[in-house]
Design a protein that fits this description.
Number of strands of chain A: 10
Number of helices of chain A: 7
Largest interface: A-B, 33 and 33 residues
Distance between the termini of chain B: 50 Å
Shape of chain A: globular
Largest sheet of chain B: 6 strands, mixed, barrel
Helix content of chain B: 55-70%
Radius of gyration of chain A: 17 Å
Strand content of chain B: 15-25%
Oligomer: heterodimer
Shape of chain B: elongated
Strand order of the largest sheet of chain A: 6-7-8-3-9-10
Largest sheet of chain A: 6 strands, mixed
Strand content of chain A: 25-35%
Radius of gyration of chain B: 33 Å
């Protein structure tokens, strides 16, 4: 597989954080490639560097050493705004605690990435957001605020928001961590089905082996090192 | 271009959606800020309009282009130079009698040409009063119990009250509390009747120039021709400058109050924005995770802050214009001033600009912080975001200091860009700095005390006061500032209130007799005894003028124009001087020694001077002063300086001679009397003015009533001020409580998770807010008492009066409010 077939590529990436007077080495010489359409489960104990790897892949943080290439762009060579624009076009995020904006309705939350992207009339943005909500089965709850939705519904809104821009890569940080078994299954099948329909790759961080097993590949991270 | 439009569209949509979730809070912030802006706009607008109106009708206010005043008749050759363009006025304080009462009045005998500009407004509207009788001020008519058509007796002549005086050129009506005005045509008075009263009469010649731009030149010419010790030459502009100074002082006070209120509102908004933007860090993180650029995020929150500014500006401008109309109508009714100038729109621009700049000052650091915080860190954090790096804290401090400085400069410009504005702002800045320092000290003390407390909730509460990111400093300093303002205003109000006791508290004196000749003593004593009164104080008064200071003639000093030259009034006035060998209760020696030895022939006579006068004349112990005592020159040496408490209604003198010098000089007596029964008092005044027409009588109870009505107006103003400050302070506390509640929610949930009982959680928060209240109350009340005492001592020159009931109520209100805020946070 050639380099340009990878949607995301980590090459010898190292990252440390300052905590009080000492440095914590979160990632050590990590190399990992995510191919287009591939689904990867990132597993490991708490503090092993899973979320750090995800945020580096999204360009929210920059590595201390090594390079990260996202959709053919070396992230360290881009400025913060360019990384934001790239993130908007290429990545969809799903979080354990949903991270929906409380004063936005379900529709407005889903429309948010399209509005940030700009270049379209709101009627068109609304249509696409509505379609994304229909895909997750929430077309009847478009005007509800997050507080008026159940946990499972909130996560489905988050999934719709992640997919509304038809991203090449979905990064999911413990997306089922706050859900019961039934909702976990619903959300996972939705993510698999929709990502496959849109041809998106998925990198999913989880502690749950059952969840990890639903992904195409499993990558283990321990003390910042891929094993 | 499309990119910018998209960004803007996105930001506007974001602001609308984000704001609608908390519109009530947003509106509350707007009202809070708008109120302070309204006060600023209204006070600045009213002061500016007053100044402009004074400038515009300077000549109408004075009655001429140039005014020459003197205690001696104006030389005929001077008057004749101006042909028809002149008018005379003669003023004399004298008793006016009706069939039922007598009252001291200021008689103003004027030419038919007077005033050369403006007019004497009377009711009924006609000039017939000039030939029919006299025009009396309403107050005088009420005190005499007369109406238009009745007869009054002035200088022994019976005259008809032909009209009620509404307004006339000259001073404002508040100046005539003791002796209300009475206008009469000079032609109605027999010739020589006024000049017979000697130096009791003030002569004025009003001149109208054909070419206005010759005013200063003509005035200078007249000054060079007339003896400066005897004649004062003023121009209309110069005279109205003095009135403008009064307006400026009122304006400075109003501006200080509005700036203080705005400072409080800004503190509230700063806290609110800090809480708001801190709570928005996850929102900003989500925006960044979904691909929003820094510019987009900054624009969103900048627009939101600006929207708050726009809302406050609309409310402030509308409220300010309404309040301006109220202030102007009060000024119109209380100053006889024709305020025709419209509102200066620049004031709105400057005030709104000041508010917006201050708002951005409040928002800039948290805005910077929110956009630079790691989105990853925020999204992964359950409780609080990552701490602010030291470099960023320093940057924030620099931003705040710089913008704080620019706000001070703008405020200085708003206040008039002069020395007094700088002093006012310096005072305001020191007040804030002191509040912050006190809060800092209190916070540090809490940490120290916390080490010795065993009771867990109280120890936690004390610990909370100095933990990182806590609002202790902001809350304690702002509540302390509000409390100190409230407390200072309360002390001022209470001190002013003590004036209500005048005439009753001190020695029961309620009637003063002036200008009683020594040979009338027996007669006066008989009349006093007849009406059941008694004399409390009797002082001889000798009139004299300064001739030379330290050997330099007054006329020479008057021609110099140095900055250290004594004020003109101090050099040219007629001094009511007394002589005695003992000190009286309302004075004390602050320098030198009271007269203690025999007078030596050939040596200057020892005299005692009032301290403020000595300072104004630039003399100290050992310096010589030469006096013109009714034509006789007397050389004196200052041997003692006295501090006089003028507010006590005992008669005293700027200059006191020892016994044995002035006994043979022409003199009159001053008596203070006690006449408790109102009927007897009225009958006494009427009888004494009949048997001794030269005597001036002041019924202090009437004066007190007038003073009380002025004080009650000031009291309303002070209560309004208290209300605005209390409103802003309450808003500040409410914002703090709401912000703290939102911020504490996850923390309290965490405490519950680790097994802390609900009652303990509640106790910790309530103790914390109660402690905040205790610290703020201690700082605020302590500082406020100091400020109030200083205002009373240095500005009002009276001993401060502390209304402990109101101070206790303030303290309790502060503590209860903080306790209530604690309940709100813990609920």
């Amino acid at each position: 597989m050639s380099g340009c077939d990878y949607v995301l590529s980590f090459n010898s990436v190292g990252k440390s954080f300052r905590s009080g007077q000492s440095d914590i080495q979160a990632l050590k010489n990590v190399s990992l490639q995510i191919a287009a359409g591939e689904t990867v489960a990132l597993v490991g104990p708490s503090g092993s560097g899973k979320s750090t790897l995800l945020s580096l892949g999204a360009g929210l943080e920059l590595p201390d050493t090594g390079t990260i290439v996202l959709d053919g762009n070396e992230l360290s060579s881009l400025n913060e705004d360019d990384r934001s624009i790239l993130r908007n076009r290429v990545i969809g995020f799903v979080y354990q605690n949903f991270q929906l904006l409380p004063t936005f309705t379900a529709l407005e939350n889903v429309a948010l990435p399209l509005e940030i992207l700009g270049g379209a009339r709101f009627s068109s943005i609304r249509r696409r957001a509505l379609s994304a909500l229909e895909e997750v089965g929430l077309s009847a709850r478009i005007d509800h605020y997050p507080a008026q939705l159940s946990g499972g519904e909130q996560q489905r809104v988050a999934v719709a928001r992640a997919l509304v821009t038809h991203p090449k890569l979905i990064l999911a940080d413990e997306p089922t961590g706050n859900l019961d078994r039934a909702n976990t299954q619903t959300v996972l099948s939705l993510m698999r089905e929709l990502s496959s329909r849109h041809g998106a790759s998925v990198v999913l961080v989880t502690h749950d082996e059952e969840v990890a097993a639903t992904m195409g590949r499993k990558v283990q991270l321990r003390d910042g090192i891929l094993t | 271009m499309n990119g910018i439009l998209d960004t803007l569209t996105f930001a506007v949509r974001f602001v609308i959606r984000d704001t609608r979730g908390a519109w009530a809070r947003f509106l509350w912030f707007g009202v809070l800020l708008g109120t302070s802006l309204a006060v600023l706009i209204a006070s600045q607008g009213a002061v500016s309009s007053l100044r402009a109106s004074i400038r515009a009708c300077a000549r109408e206010l004075v009655g001429g282009d140039i005014v020459i005043t003197s205690k001696k008749p104006i030389p005929a050759e001077i008057a004749s130079r101006f042909g028809q363009h002149k008018a005379f006025e003669e003023r004399l304080r004298t008793m006016v009698r009706s069939s039922t009462a007598a009252q001291l009045a200021q008689l103003r005998a004027v030419d038919d040409e007077y005033p050369l500009f403006g007019s004497i407004e009377v009711v009924p509207k006609s000039t017939a009063w000039r030939s029919a009788g006299v025009a009396l001020e309403r107050t005088l008519m009420d005190r005499l119990g007369v109406k238009v058509g009745d007869q009054v007796e002035v200088l022994g002549i019976s005259l008809t009250v032909a009209a009620e005086l509404v307004s006339a050129p000259g001073d404002i009506s508040a100046a005539y509390v003791v002796a209300p005005r009475l206008y009469i045509s000079r032609s109605m008075l027999p010739s020589g009747i006024l000049s017979a009263r000697g130096s009791m009469v003030d002569y004025s010649l009003f001149l109208k120039l054909e070419r206005v731009n010759h005013v200063d030149e003509t005035a200078a010419q007249l000054r060079s021709q007339l003896d400066p010790a005897t004649f004062t030459v003023d121009t209309a502009v110069k005279r109205t400058e003095r009135l403008s100074l009064v307006v400026s002082s009122i304006g400075s006070l109003a501006s200080t109050v509005s700036l203080a209120t705005m400072t409080l509102a800004l503190l509230a908004i700063t806290l609110a924005i800090r809480f708001h933007l801190r709570s928005k860090r996850p929102v900003a993180a989500v925006l960044r995770a979904t691909g929003a650029t820094m510019q987009q995020i900054r624009l969103c929150f900048f627009l939101q802050t600006s929207l708050l500014g726009v809302l406050a500006a609309i409310l402030g401008v509308l409220g300010g214009l309404a309040l301006y109309e109220v202030l102007v109508s009060i000024a119109r009714t209380s100053t006889e001033l024709r305020i025709t100038e419209s509102f200066d729109p620049m004031i709105i621009g400057a005030s709104v600009g000041f508010m917006v700049l201050s708002l951005l000052w409040a928002a800039a650091p948290p805005l910077h912080h929110i956009s630079s915080t790691s989105a990853f860190a925020v999204l992964r954090s359950d409780l609080e975001g990552p701490p602010q790096p030291a470099l960023q804290r320093r940057f924030d401090l620099c931003v705040r200091l710089l913008s704080g400085f620019s706000i001070l400069v703008l405020a200085w410009l708003l206040l008039g860009a002069d020395k007094s504005a700088a002093i006012l702002l310096g005072g305001a800045a020191s007040t804030i700095a002191t509040s912050v320092s006190l809060a800092w000290g209190a916070r540090w003390s809490a940490k120290w005390v916390g080490e010795y407390v065993d009771y867990f909730p109280l120890r936690c509460a004390l610990r909370n006061l100095h933990r990182p990111g806590n609002q202790t400093l902001a809350v304690v300093s702002s509540i302390a500032l509000a409390l100190s303002l409230l407390c200072a205003v309360s002390v001022v109000e209470s001190t002013l209130g003590t004036l209500r006791g005048i005439g009753t508290d001190y020695g029961e004196a309620n009637v003063f007799l002036y200008e009683l000749f020594p040979e009338q003593t027996t007669l006066a004593t008989r009349v006093i005894e007849k009406h059941g009164g008694r004399a409390l104080q009797q002082l001889p008064v000798v009139l004299m003028r300064l001739q030379a200071i330290k050997g330099t003639p007054i006329s020479e000093i008057l021609r110099t124009d140095g900055t250290d030259t004594p004020p003109r009034w101090a050099l040219t006035r007629e001094y009511w001087t007394s002589y005695r060998d003992h000190l009286i209760p309302n004075e004390r020696i602050t320098g030198g020694q009271w007269f203690d030895g025999p007078l030596l022939n050939g040596e200057p006579v020892p005299v005692s001077l009032e301290d403020a006068l000595a300072e104004r004349l630039g003399v100290s112990i050992g310096d010589t002063l030469e006096w013109d005592v009714q034509g006789l020159s007397v050389l004196t040496r200052v041997t003692s300086i006295r501090d006089i408490l003028w507010e006590r209604f005992e008669r005293n003198s700027f200059v006191v001679f020892p016994s044995g010098v002035l006994e043979e000089a022409p003199q009159f007596l001053f008596w203070s009397l006690s006449l408790r029964d109102p009927g007897a008092r009225s009958a006494f005044i009427r009888e004494i003015s009949a048997v001794a027409p030269n005597v001036s009588v002041i019924d202090l109870t009437l004066v007190v009533n007038e003073v009380l009505s002025v004080l009650s107006t000031i009291g309303i103003g002070l209560k309004l001020l208290l209300g605005i400050i209390a409103f802003t302070a309450t808003g500040l506390l409410a914002i703090t409580a709401l912000g703290a509640r939102a911020e504490r929610a996850p923390e309290l949930m965490l405490l519950a998770r680790i097994g802390m009982r609900r009652s303990i959680k509640r106790s910790i928060v309530r103790f914390e807010f109660l402690l905040l209240g205790v610290l703020a109350t201690m700082c605020g009340i302590g500082f406020g008492l100091g400020v109030g005492w200083s205002i009373a001592y240095w500005a009002l020159h009276v001993p401060a009066n502390f209304n402990w009931l109101s101070i206790t109520a303030l303290s309790l209100a502060s503590l209860v409010s903080c306790w209530a805020a604690g309940r709100l946070v813990s609920s």
